[in-house]
Design brief:
It is a single chain. The protein is an alpha/beta fold. The protein has 2 domains: 208 residues, no CATH class; 245 residues, Alpha-Beta Complex (Spore Coat Polysaccharide Biosynthesis Protein SpsA, Chain A), CATH 3.90.550. It is built from 16 helices and 7 strands. A 7-stranded mixed sheet has the order 3-2-1-4-6-5-7, sandwiched between helices. Strand 1, helix 2 and strand 2 form a beta-alpha-beta unit. Helix 9 runs antiparallel to helix 10. The protein is globular, with a radius of gyration of 24 Å. The N and C termini lie far apart (49 Å).
């Protein structure tokens, strides 16, 4: 019986943690809805007056981006801003032939009178954070805009973001990500679905009430003074953007989030690229939980509600670990429930997951309706997308749980850039991309075993107990079967 009680305890704790996270999401939904009713009266620079135009430096941290560098530079030089107040830094840590082609393109731009510099380091110390920090040493700008290689800001992007720095308390202006290849595949659709929730519900929900948000690593602008005041970029976590964001806000700098300024970018189109990105984000989130939680809790001036949202924000990636725990333990729990009648009262805990799922469903529907409109047909489309997303997100739970555990236990690893493909439509191919990781991870084998495990869970629904089965967890096990099956088979057959 000891093993059964331990199983019930671990299962229950994970369910409660997910439920608390769901309640926080529901609170963010209320914040989001109330924010839509408010008018933004923030002070702004009048860029038609030369004395109000701040000097801007655009930083482009790149590493082996052969397929998108030409597109990136062609796009960036089209940005509208007074030329005498604008410089561009290409922070190039590349180790392949793209260094030469980038240098050639930059030279041509320089000959056209564009203030652009090619900065190459002899090592990748600190990875992206190290490159940004190195470039900062020679920046002319008091305002620093940052774009990853796959981002394509609109021509008036700087004109929409820079004016908010008239408020001297503003340290960061962050914009919403768009997706140029959203409809390329099921994988890109679910990534867009998840990111849209973050960039509407979460960012607006937190920012509108003064809670901590994060610079998203790209498509945003920093005040240089804020970077230095917060301690500059540090490369000791894989999400240097989240790290510096929290250090800046602990220094009482304010962040401005612009939901209506959309910066298009490319989503990973194959699962190995999505895996590397997910691993970095989730491990970095756990690393920052270890690094920043005590500082947040000790900050006397922070309201309790801000502290709670901050801790749950930093624990965001750890929800994958809780999902994985309840997934694996759900089958033993099914047997315990039907074997020990006197323990049945404990199984009311299972309703927490149903309630949590319903909360997520409601929150995501409001996000979806905001972006695509309402109506019955849209609602049916949303239902299909939500359950596809939910299933595949659970299918990533083993992979992401390993990342989370490595982050919490302090295992260091290299910053692995997500390969870019320059893909916009279904006609564009990716199989010849030289940056694709072709080695099969051992995690994939474990995911294949889990497909069989959850097939057994579905079979168990028919045979447990003496009342003709127990189908309460059957939908859950079906979604897990589909999710892990999708991740497993895509990882096997879409690697190269």
């Amino acid at each position: 019986m000891i093993l059964e009680y331990i199983t019930i305890a671990i299962y229950s704790i994970s369910l409660v943690l997910i439920f608390l996270y769901a309640l926080a999401q529901l609170n963010l939904l209320f914040n989001y809805l109330s924010a839509q009713k408010k008018e933004d009266n923030s002070p702004q620079f009048d860029l038609s007056k030369s004395e109000e135009v701040p000097f801007v430096t655009i930083q482009l941290p790149v590493f082996n981006e052969m397929y998108v560098m030409e597109r990136l530079l062609e796009n960036i030089v089209k940005l509208k801003y007074p030329k005498e107040k604008l410089e561009i830094q290409v922070l190039d840590d590349s180790t392949d032939e793209s260094v030469k082609t980038t240098a050639h393109q930059i030279k041509k731009l320089q000959e056209q009178g564009i203030d652009i510099h090619h900065i190459c380091r002899t090592n990748r110390q600190g990875f992206k954070a190290g490159a940004l920090k190195e470039g900062l040493k020679t920046t002319k700008g008091e305002i620093i805009a940052i774009f990853d290689a796959d981002f394509l800001p609109e021509e008036d992007w700087l004109l929409k973001t820079v004016p908010y720095f008239k408020d001297e308390k503003i340290g960061v202006v962050q914009t919403r990500w768009g997706h140029i290849n959203r409809n390329y595949s099921t994988l890109t659709k679910i990534q867009a679905f998840a990111l849209d929730a973050h960039f509407t519900l979460e960012q607006v929900g937190r920012n509108s009430k003064g809670h901590f948000i994060n610079f998203n690593g790209t498509a945003g602008v920093w005040r240089k003074e804020c970077i230095y005041d917060a301690g500059n970029w540090e490369g000791d976590t894989l999400t240097e953007d989240l790290d510096l964001s929290y250090r800046a806000q602990l220094k009482k700098w304010q962040f401005k989030y612009l939901e209506n300024v959309v910066t298009p970018a490319e989503l990973p189109v194959i699962i190995s690229a999505a895996r590397s990105q997910q691993f970095r984000w989730n491990k970095g989130g756990a690393e920052n939980f270890q690094k920043m939680t005590k500082r947040v809790l000790k900050a006397k001036e922070l309201p309790l509600k801000t502290k709670i949202h901050s801790v749950l924000h930093l624990l965001n990636s750890s929800m994958f670990l809780n999902v994985f725990i309840i997934a694996v333990l759900s089958i033993p729990m099914l047997y315990i429930k039907n074997e020990y009648a006197h323990l049945k009262n404990y199984f009311y805990m299972m309703s927490f997951f149903v309630i949590s799922s319903l909360i997520f469903f409601i929150c995501y529907w409001h996000m979806y309706k905001r972006m695509y409109g309402g109506g019955f047909a849209k609602f049916l489309n949303f239902i299909g997308m939500f359950f596809t997303f939910f299933s595949i997100a659970m299918g990533f739970s083993l992979h992401n749980s390993i990342a989370v555990l490595e982050g919490h236990f302090g295992k260091k690893s290299e910053f692995v850039r997500t390969p870019k493909f320059n893909i916009k439509t279904i006609k564009d191919g990716w199989k010849n991309n030289k940056y694709i990781k072709k080695k099969l991870s051992l995690n994939v084998i474990a995911e294949g075993i889990l497909v069989l495990y959850f097939a057994f869970g579905m079979y168990s629904a028919f045979v447990v107990g003496d009342q003709g089965g127990d189908f309460g967890l059957f939908p859950f096990h079906l979604m897990l079967f589909i999710g892990f099956g999708y991740v497993f088979f895509k990882s096997i057959f879409s690697r190269a």
